[in-house]
Amino acid sequence: MAGIYDYEHPFVCTDAVVFRITTQEADSYRKLPEPKLSVLLYNRPVEPFQGKWCLPGGFLNIDETPEDNIRRKLAEKSQLMECYLEQLYTFCDIERDERGRVISIAYLGLVKESEEKLNGEWFTVNTEGNRLTFEKGSIRLTEEDLGFDHYKIIQTALERLRAKLRYSDIIFHLLPTEFTLTQVQNVYEAITGKPEAAANFRRKIAHMVKETDRYTSDKGHRPAKIFVKNSDWDK
Amino acid sequence: MAGIYDYEHPFVCTDAVVFRITTQEADSYRKLPEPKLSVLLYNRPVEPFQGKWCLPGGFLNIDETPEDNIRRKLAEKSQLMECYLEQLYTFCDIERDERGRVISIAYLGLVKESEEKLNGEWFTVNTEGNRLTFEKGSIRLTEEDLGFDHYKIIQTALERLRAKLRYSDIIFHLLPTEFTLTQVQNVYEAITGKPEAAANFRRKIAHMVKETDRYTSDKGHRPAKIFVKNSDWDK
DNA sequence: TGAATAGTGTCTGTCAGACATTATGGG
DNA sequence: CCCATAATGTCTGACAGACACTATTCA
Questions:
Q1: The pLDDT of residue A225 is above 90
Q2: Which of A100, B21, B140, B224 lies 20 to 30 Å from B124, alpha-carbon distance?
Q3: CA-to-C1' span, A225 to C8 (A)
Q4: E strands in chain B
């Protein structure tokens, strides 16, 4: 049906909060590297919010789903081909984009740990009180360094991720297909920011994982049993 | 900034799944009326989907938030002035509206039980297996009788409502400000479709409610203590 | 041996489900 | 007395948090 698009109506864009686990070298050679939760940001080259840090995303084309739009943008900008995505929330404040009325369908994205280098700028997420900060090398970002309402979007995404940790198997989207239980615990703690007692944590996730018959062989340490996700998990 | 609206981009509309508790007279005069979960639908007067039943909602204006849009539509169509609303999900299938590309920001709405007559068509929600049907008097609707993807939207809303029953105090948006514990249990059962043991249920919601010093006086029965919602509830 | 990591055993309190029991008003 | 509704008591098993303990590797 022709003509229905020709009056002024809101624009639709997408934004993705993509989290990933990054590890940094430990201070001692006997210690294992400490995993951190990181988020993908990029520095905005044009106005508005030129020079501020923003989430990946873009305007939604008329023949495209928001999820396809995000996947395309992530592939273009960051060579990110494999990513779990779920819809997060739709942000609709009238003043959120000074160029005009733009609503944003935001997604939560999770990338598996892997050795492959990814383009883009991954910032570790730090919770200081109830304020989030983001760090990469010597760069430290606070709310004012982010464009649009993207700080609020990241907050919402982190809340969702933390909530789903408790009652779903979402954590495995951040882990490689094979892992040790200590690795799972470290990722869990990196997300919540709170320490877990090992014995209790192992019982808590026991029903989500399956043993293999293999072990790690890290130099200097006791070998750890390798686990995989338990795919036939009903609850 | 002028001119940014003049190329073809998706339309944005809103849809609301508004639930309410309706009671129908019991068969025996000694029995209390049985509460049912009902949803607000209206019969579509124009193409597409003329004659099918649809959710209230409409196209989003450029200077309006989706929530304001819904409240305006509900007030116009159904004289519904007070309603709890939360964003549910944004439905974006490319083919969901044959007139063109339209994405829909869907809301979950809950209305308190009250005596006031409301305009509009309230259909009771029945779960038969995993299929929903909707009934009002002798009219019985199945998936095929609903327009657009509104059946799917209602399904999503019901799932959300059922999930939030467990870990939030959302049920009180469907109850009057004063209620008995049996009333709460009946509403809970109307939503889940499953019976609850009275002793267990009372313990489960004890921390969400506060006693008053008053009692009901229904003829033919033992008086029941009247409760209100416990507003200072942290967990 | 000791440091660092891997993994287990046990106690406790809380809470949900199952089920039995008591209480009250009125026909 | 009986019915319908209101409300409480008790047992169980599951589970989460706290905490102490054992096991393995290698420098």
A1: yes
A2: B224
A3: 14
A4: 11-24, 34-43, 53-54, 57-59, 84-91, 102-111, 121-128, 131-136, 139-141, 178-179, 209-215, 225-229
A156 burial via Cβ count (<10 Å: 0-12, 13-18, 19+): middle
CA–CA gap between residue B141 and residue B38 (Å, rounded): 13
Tokens describing residue B122: 């309230």
Query: HSE-up of A107 (CA within 13 Å, CB side)?
Result: 25
Considering only residues 41 to 60 of chain A, which have any Cβ-Cβ distance to chain B shorter than 8 Å?
A: 59-60
pLDDT tens digits for range A11-21: 999 999 999 99
Question: Containing H/E element for A105?
Answer: strand A102-111
Q: DSSP string covering B58-124, please? A: EEPPTT--HHHHHHHHHHHHH-----EEEEEEEE--TTS-TTS-EEEEEEEEEE---SS---SEEEE
Q: Domains, chain A, ranges and CATH?
A: 4-164 (3.90.79.10), 167-235 (1.10.10.10)
User: What does the pLDDT average to over B161-167?
Assistant: 93
In whole angstroms, give the CA distance from residue B85 to residue B111: 9
> What would you measure as the largest C-alpha separation in chain B, in angstroms?
71
Answer yes or no: are the C-beta atoms of B208 and B229 closer than 8 Å. yes
Which three-class secondary structure state does DSSP give residue A127?
Answer: strand
Best residue of B12, B59, B156, B168 to probe chain A, by most A CBs closer than 10 Å = B12
Distance CA B77, CA B48 (A): 19
Q: Is B66 in contact with A1 (Cβ distance < 8 A)? A: no
Q: Using the beta-carbon criterion (under 8 Å), do B12 and A8 form an inter-chain contact? A: no
- Partners of residue A59 in chain B, C-beta under 8 Å: 9
Amino acid type, A234: D
Question: In chain A, what percentage of residues exceed pLDDT 70?
Answer: 92
Rounded Cα distance, A129 and A131, in Å: 6
By C-alpha distance, which of A100, A4, A17 is closest to B59? A4
- H or E segment at A181? helix A181-192
The encoded tokens of residue B88 equal 């549910």
Q: Per the structure block, which two tokens stand in for A170? A: 């979402």
Beta bridge partners of A104: A13, A91
pLDDT at residue number A1: 43
pTM as predicted: 0.94
Higher-confidence residue: A5 or A190?
A190
How many other CB atoms sit within 10 Å of the CB of residue A35? 22
pLDDT > 90: percent of chain B:
77
Closest residue by Cα to the C1' atom of nucleotide C3? Answer: A30
A229: tokens are 């996700």
